[in-house]
Amino acid sequence: MSSIIHNSQNQTKEYSRRYLLFYIATSVLISILIFRLWHLQIVSGEQLKTFSEKNSLKKTRVAAPRGLILDRDKNLLINNLSGFMVTISPQYTSNLNDLATALEPILKIEKSEIITKVKKSRRRNGPFLPVPIKKNLSREDVYKLKRLRVDYSGLEIEETQLRNYLLGENGAQLFGFVRQISKDEIKKFSKRYKNLNFEPGDIIGKKGLELSSESTLKGVNGADFIEVDARGRKTYKSSSKFLNMEPKPPVPGNSLVLTLDKDIQEAAYKAFQREDWVGNRVGSILVMKNTGEILAWVSTPSFDPNNFSTGISSKLWSELTNHPHRPLRNRVIQDHYSPGSTMKPLIALAALQEKIVGPYTKMYSPGSYTLGNATFHDSHREGHGNINIMEAIEGSSNVFFYKVGQTLGIDRIHRYAKLFDMGEKTNLNIGYEVPGRIPSREWKKKALGEVWTPGETLVTAIGQGFVLTTALQMAKAYNIIAQDGIVYKPYLVKQILDHNNNVVKTFEPEIITDITQPTEDRDTYIKKEYFKYVQKGMRDVFHGDKGTATWYKIKNFEMAGKTGTTQVKRFSSKNIYKSCKERPPKYRHHGWFVGYAPFKDPEITIAVLAEHSCSGALGGAGPFKDIVLAYLEKYKPDVFLKTQNIKKVGANSQ
Amino acid sequence: MNNPLTSSTSISRFNFKFAFIIFALVFIGLINLYSATHSLNLGHNTQLFWKQLVWVFIGWGIFLSATFLDYDFFKRFAYPFYFFNVIALVCVKLFGHTALGAQRWIDLGFFMWQPSETAKISVAIVLAKIFCDKSYPNGLGVKDLFLPAIVTLIPFVLTLKQPDLGTSLLIIGIAASMIIFIRVKWSILIFVLVTGVLATPLLWNFGLKSYQKDRVKTFLNPGSDPRGKGYNSIQSKVAVGSGRLLGKGFRKGTQSQLEFIPERHSDFIYSVLSEEHGFIGSLFALGLFAILFFTSLRISYEARDKFGALLVIGIFSFVFFHTFINIGMVIGILPIVGMPLPLLSYGGSSMMTIMLGLGLISSVSYHRFLF
Fold first, then answer.
1. CB nearest B244 (choices: A46, A124, A232)
2. How far is A626 from A610, CA to CA, in rounded Å?
3. Residue B285 has pLDDT above 50, yes or no
């Protein structure tokens, strides 16, 4: 033991010169630090202190304008307005109560609300982040506030950009709205968009396209160097004065050119304001070009997204969230409904392909149909007599389709409905979308733990029971019928432009598949020749003797479609034929109308859903007609002229 | 303490002077951090201070545990520790957490472990073990340096890839200090220096990421950068300088309170101290660091064996480089590298690693007698 100590201590001694070297090196390096500290703090201290107190240069963020949103003709739908806002910096406010009292009469915001706002932000964001109090100041307000600023520290007037929605309430659910980013969202968004930089004070999309296109619309903030006094107040701007520090200009976000057509969008919105309307004006409209480009997207009732740009008041927010008709909801994709009779053309195609009936096979279709000991009613108490499949579509016979549906069976109905992507999300990627539902044996077993019954097949064949679809799905499915089986992908964004209007990216129509041919992973298909019979039936909905929407036909112009009426409440057989308008609104049927125009070489497909409007004809066909006319007026003016002097044909509402 | 025969009770063998300096620095650090985070515009301001307080307590636990554990333990398990650390570095590259563009952390649930931090200590331990068993009367030759070079280069490359240039250079620095301490043949020293000079342009063109180049460029000419990358460096210097002799006072530093200084709670913490407590305050803290370094060298000198002496040299250089580079960066004589100031900067990883290192030095002091 002792020898080891001896030995090791001898070894250590060997290194005494090394230790000296290390002592010296350490001392020299620390002396360098001390010398430099002395130089900075003692020699140039006075100068640097003056600089830090009087000419402090602060790097500030220059907010980048958000990208614009344009329609297909590059008409503005959403832009930014510059304006002034008043902010309070908690750190420099000596008496918040006095300041709030002084602001109350100018801004017309209650004192308590101002104080709560400031305190809340101070707690969440710290004392240095200026709290926006009011965003769209009038010129007079700015003048008054500038005088007030002399007496109250912490009060600032800043330039801002307000997101401006030119269509107001129209399309609000599709466009969404914006809001100032919160602390938590900075973390969340930075994680989601790795190559984007989010800073306090930034404006972000909260819903709809604004949210889903965040990475396109968001610009890159710039930086500027401003001089502030010792209390952090801006004195005047100083660019490139100090050590060649030039400001870095912000880069505006990219703009979206949508497939939307502003004129059609406005016509669609107006279509829900028709005078002869029975419904409560709750519903959705989707207009799609034959190539899948979405021309209009309406969900009513709506809200004004401009209220969010200026910072929504808690009162208005609670009004919106507590409204019985939920105006914030995007009904086009977030609500699904039974398609009712609009399901029939799809069933008809399946029946023709499966050779259950021929195109001209006549079938007796009375006013009711009995299966086991249950009776299924037709909408016409007296029935339709001997009719073929085209007449069954024209007059919307339930019994004809009960019979066809019974022979098809649920498995085939399910298979053919899926061919039209029913019960599938369209993945437009603009927020929450419900998939809808096409029931099957497996689905019922899994969801309800019950066995499928034959009666359920019958109601599925007329689009009732478990079937649920969205307006977007219906438009997509009918566009497939109009295009003789070609499936176009629905889309909303046509182009992305940078801030100099150079094209960054263009999106072209995309054919997903052709359902007239089987593919490797799909055996189900429908022969092209069958489409024309179904199309003929849908044409006669307007133009036939017994059509359900003849009231709404357009003179000298052919179009095709199908009404659909779905029960919201089951009625006893005694009450089933009672007039819808006599019922309280919430028990009235929903009305669908889905169709396309022109009948030959179709260009647009429209789906209309009107809640509690009693019938598809009353609620849906009217708006459909208005939109078609608006389309013709814009794109086929010569045809439009011929259609004037609209001829009213005898009412045949079902 | 001077007489080995009377120093056999455990409490009197404890190096109180060493521990007191650490205590003083940690104390100053907490007060300073309180001021720095007082106005922090990052939300939950005071949380940083309380979190750091927890790290300080855990740090002391680690320090005391390391002190009373015979450092022979680390000699025996030098390689297992080292390999475990290397594997962790590989893992961190494969599935670690990403922060500010670099992958550095492994989530242990209660704590985010940063293997690159502990790698600095593992390398010191392994090199001390390699060098302690032999004597090199003529200095280290090429053959003697083969194993040490491999042992150093593995963690060097792994940390460089993270990318964490600061840590990887620090690992080289630790190894170099230990090698110079043992003595190296002049021919090798000259060879390394010449190669180093020749390799610099190559490293500049192919080895450095653009942000690393920017930092060096900015350092060489702070006003050159129109987009304001020199901003941090300038504002830090202004903060330090404006403190003058006595400073602006606790929590009264306008540069830091008004957020001219970025990262002022971590990498730029010394500028807060300098601004608020002036030349006197800066010198006081720097003096404490100097005493800490000299005491460490003294402990190395008095170590019971060569392993202990070398281990202390390795850890000494680790703490010294950290301190020198950080303060040098804050006062504008070195480029900006993300390297925290030992014991003063906010951060659990740094606090715990430094306390572990200092605990090892303390252990060498505590076990300097074999009784």
1. A46
2. 15
3. yes
Is residue A110 within 8 Å of A104, Cβ to Cβ? yes
Q: Say how many CB pairs under 8 Å bridge A and B.
A: 168
Instruction: Give me the residues of chain A with pLDDT under 50, please.
Output: 1-6, 55, 230-231, 236-244, 646-654
At A222-272, the pLDDT tens digits run 877 666 554 455 554 443 344 445 677 889 999 999 999 999 999 999 998
Please check whether residue A543 is in contact with residue A555, taking contact to mean a CB–CB distance below 8 angstroms.
Answer: no
Strand order in the sheet with A590-597: A294-300, A283-289, A604-610, A590-597, A560-566
A482-524: per-residue pLDDT in tens?
A: 999 999 999 999 999 999 999 999 999 999 999 999 998 899 9
Give the CA diameter of chain A. Answer: 122
Residue found under tokens 């610099």 = B200
CB B36 within 8 A of CB B274: no
**Which residue is closest to B224 within chain A, CA to CA?**
A244
Which chain A residues are Cβ-neighbours of B294 within 8 angstroms? 23, 26
Interface touch A15/B181, C-beta < 8 Å: yes
- pTM of the prediction? 0.63
Q: Give B84 to chain A, closest Cα distance, Å.
A: 30
In whole angstroms, give the CA distance from residue A146 to residue A143.
Answer: 5
Q: Is B181 helix (H, G, I), strand (E, B) or coil?
A: helix
Residues on chain B touching A3 (C-beta within 8 angstroms): none
Cα separation, B112 vs A348, whole angstroms = 63
Rounded Cα distance between A580 and A587, Å, is 9
CB A460 within 8 A of CB A405: yes
Cα–Cα dist A191/B97, whole Å: 12
- A8: tokens are 């090791």
Beta-sheet strand order (sheet of A56-62): A56-62, A222-228, A234-237
- 10 Å Cβ neighbour count for B178? 23
Q: Where would I find the H helices in A299-357?
A: 306-309, 314-322, 331-334, 344-353
Residue type, B141: G
Per-residue pLDDT, A575 = 64
Tell me how far apart the alpha carbons of residues A374 and A10 are, in angstroms, rounded to a whole number: 109
Rounded to the nearest 5°, which phi and psi values hold at A322? -100, 0
What was the pLDDT predicted at A4?
40
Look at residues A343, A340, A339, A348 and name the one whose alpha carbon lies nearest to residue A391. Answer: A348
For A:22-41, CB contacts with B below 8 A are: 22-23, 26-27, 29-30, 32-34, 36-38, 40-41
Residues of chain B by 3-state class (helix, strand, coil), percent to 5:
70, 5, 25
Coil vs helix vs strand at B208: coil
Residue pLDDT, tens place only, B24-67: 999 999 999 888 876 544 444 567 888 899 999 999 999 999 99
User: How large is the average pLDDT for residues B300-319?
Assistant: 93
Pick from B2, B1, B18: nearest CA to B294: B18
Q: Mutation test of the interface with chain A: which of B224, B301, B330, B361, choosing the one with the most A Cβ atoms within 10 A?
A: B301
Distance CA A336, CA A423 (A): 10
In sequence order, which ranges of A359-505 are alpha helices (DSSP H)? 389-395, 398-419, 441-448, 454-461, 471-482
A183 exposure class (CB count in 10 Å sphere: 0-12, 13-18, 19+): middle
Contact present, A643 and A630 (Cβ < 8 Å): no
Rg (CA), chain B: 21
C-alpha span between B313 and B293 (Å, rounded): 10
Report pLDDT for A652. Answer: 45
Q: Do B293 and A26 touch (CB under 8 A)?
A: yes
- CA closest to A54 among chain B residues: B254
CA distance to partner chain A, nearest, from residue B292 (Å): 11
Alpha helices in A488-620 (DSSP H): 528-543, 616
